[in-house]
Automatic annotation (TrEMBL), chain A:
Lineage: Bacteria, Bacillati, Bacillota, Bacilli, Bacillales
GO terms for cellular component: membrane protein complex; plasma membrane
Keyword line: ATP-binding, Cell membrane, Membrane, Nucleotide-binding, Transport
Identification of the protein by name: Putative hemin import ATP-binding protein HrtA
GO MF, one example: ATP binding
Subunit structure: The complex is composed of two ATP-binding proteins (HrtA), two transmembrane proteins (HrtB) and a solute-binding protein.
Organism encoding this protein: Lysinibacillus macroides
Length: 229, 323
């Protein structure tokens, strides 16, 4: 079942006088529960496409459809609400909030998503998620003292604690060595499968494709190939 | 979740530095304001504490009251017309106490008025600062241009002129000491300027500004204060700006995961308000403490209202600078 559709999306950036078309009419759809990998050369517009899909920036033309909603016609507050409740994000560098403990990072996310859970329920939910990613023992630690892999585990926990429908990941393993990358991808694919989360992931790493259900290759601002494994 | 507070708790040192800068600079501003105020009191409390009104001096004195001589006929005329009017003169000089120690004073003599102390021949009423120098009621003081003696009748608070305590003496004594019968000035309280032939009217403020030392002193101090306010405002704005520039990435992440923009602004403003309020409360209390414990000889006067005023100035400036 199609959960997410990107329809003829174009994006042009103005660099001074020069207008540059980075995305030249992209079509793709995400099937529920699948992990879709987005690959392509550096500068081909992968991150740009991901942020447009996630409603972090708007498309110059075309439509972004999620369930029965059209992101291109929504106002910023509506998109923010959607992002806060239905989307999760993992970035290349974990981008945790430096002044919050591991536990607080996740509580903040529940807070943003306006979770209906009571305080102690939130705390046990946080604990559950941290156990899932194997970080429960570092609950009280601040990001500065965590290793890259540990940070990324916390970032993953933060991205899914509010039970989003779609997870957007921009090179989630690029800052990690090969061993850690495998672990993180393993974790990510397990979690998204059990929680039935649809994932769009940008990656550079060939090895990571093993965890994807589908690979979309973009080149020169257009979809080059769409392969289902 | 209170992000503003959480961040301040985690990054104590950073916020402490910012706070102490505001604290130090505002404390300095308050101290200099206090000093300026104190000096101006010390320099001209005698004039400053008079109610708003008009000062008249002879036109040909050209704004220098020391050179002013108001003809006694003219004086009579003004006093007849204005019941409250008082003619007076002042002149710097010395009083010798019983141990022959010289005290610099500003001699003041006036026609009868409730605004000035009334003294009879052979008496003197002094500013209370001389009490701290060991002079007491009943002491006998002398002046080398005056044949008689002055008996100290009493003390009055806060009567200073040109950094010297005021000594009220009788018209006769003044005339003997300075060999002039004419008064230098006529003061009419609570009145609008009027035209008297040969006299020039000055408001209280204008008159204060004719006193050269007062003018120069206040001008330079006020300039320092303004510079301090401007510099501290800029400093604070720059610091705060830099702090937030460092956090632009963080704000981006928070926005990406769905934090409301208004919540981010709240966070920034809460932090700024907390820091400024805490540092200003501290610096105001400390400057008030200085006000209390500073030695009496130190010209320092800082009322809460001065603080609150400069505080207001300071903050409206900072708010504008950071907007
Ligand atoms: N805000 C912007 N303004 C102008 N140009 C931009 C902007 N954002 C991206 N671009 C340009 O769009 C192109 C695609 O950028 P994008 O970040 O999407 O590439 P990418 O495929 O993610 O590359 P990488 O694999 O290196 O991360 C680049 O040439 C970039 O310079
Ligand atoms: Mg990229």
């Amino acid at each position: 079942m199609t959960l997410f559709t990107i329809d003829k999306v174009r994006k042009t950036f103005k660099n001074g006088e020069v207008e540059e078309e980075i995305l030249k009419g992209i079509n793709l759809s995400l099937k529920e529960g699948e992990i879709t990998a987005l690959v392509g050369a550096s500068g081909s517009g992968k991150s740009t496409l991901l942020t447009i899909a996630a409603g972090l920036q708007s498309a110059t033309d075309g439509q972004v459809l999620f369930e029965d909603q059209n992101l291109t016609t929504m106002n910023t507050e509506q998109i923010r609400k959607l992002r806060a409740s239905k989307f999760g994000f993992v970035f290349q560098f974990s981008h945790l909030v430096p002044f919050l403990t591991v536990e607080e990072q996740l509580l903040l996310m529940l807070d943003i998503a306006e979770s209906p859970l009571k305080k102690h329920e939130q705390q046990s939910e946080v604990h559950r998620l941290l156990q899932l990613v194997g970080m429960a023992h570092r609950k009280a630690a601040y990001p500065a003292v965590l290793s890259g892999g540990e940070k990324q585990r916390v970032a993953i926990a933060r991205a899914i604690i509010h039970q989003p429908k779609v997870l957007f990941a921009d090179e989630p393993t690029a800052s990690l060595d090969s061993q850690r990358s495998q672990e993180i991808m393993q974790l990510l694919s397990e979690l998204t499968t059990t929680l039935n989360i649809t994932t769009l992931m940008v990656t550079h790493d060939e090895e990571m494709l093993a965890y994807a259900d589908r690979m979309i290759k973009i080149s020169d601002g257009a979809v080059l190939s769409n392969t289902l494994y | 979740m209170n992000l503003a507070w959480k961040e301040m708790k985690k990054n104590k040192v950073r916020f402490l530095i910012l706070g102490s800068i505001i604290f130090l600079v505002s404390f300095l501003t308050f101290m200099i304001s206090g000093l300026a105020n104190g000096l101006s009191q010390d320099n001209a409390a005698f004039i400053k504490d008079l109610p708003q009104g008009q000062f008249y001096m002879a036109e040909d004195a050209d704004g220098t009251f020391n050179l002013s001589r108001i003809d006694s006929d003219l004086q009579q005329e003004v006093i007849r017309k204005e019941k409250e009017a008082v003619a007076f003169s002042m002149q710097m000089g010395f009083l010798n106490d019983q141990d022959d120690k010289q005290q610099s004073v500003a001699f003041v003599t006036s026609t009868a008025s409730t605004l000035f102390s009334t003294v009879y021949q052979g008496e003197v009423i002094l500013d209370s600062s001389l009490q701290d120098k060991g002079i007491q009621v009943g002491d006998i003081l002398t002046n080398n241009q005056y044949n008689g003696k002055f008996i100290v009748k009493g003390f009055v608070a806060q009567k200073k002129y040109s950094h010297a305590p005021v000594a009220y003496i009788s018209e006769e004594a003044y005339e003997e000491m300075y060999r002039v019968k004419d008064k230098q000035l006529i003061y009419v309280p609570n009145s609008e300027p009027q035209n008297f032939k040969g006299l020039q009217a000055y408001s209280n403020k204008e008159f204060l500004n004719t006193i050269p030392s007062y003018n120069a002193e206040q001008l330079s101090l006020n300039m320092i204060i303004w510079f301090l306010v401007v510099i501290s405002g800029l400093l604070f704005a720059i610091f705060f700006y830099m702090m937030n520039v460092q956090k632009i990435g963080l704000y981006g992440i928070l926005k990406a995961i769905g934090v409301k923009t208004s919540k981010l602004f709240n966070m920034i403003w809460t932090q700024m308000v907390i820091i400024t309020v805490v540092s200003l409360v501290l610096s105001i209390s400390l400057s008030q403490l200085v006000n209390l414990v500073s030695p009496k000889e130190m010209p320092f006067s800082l009322t809460i209202s001065t603080c609150v005023f400069s505080d207001w100035l300071y903050r409206s400036y900072v708010v504008r600078a950071t907007d």
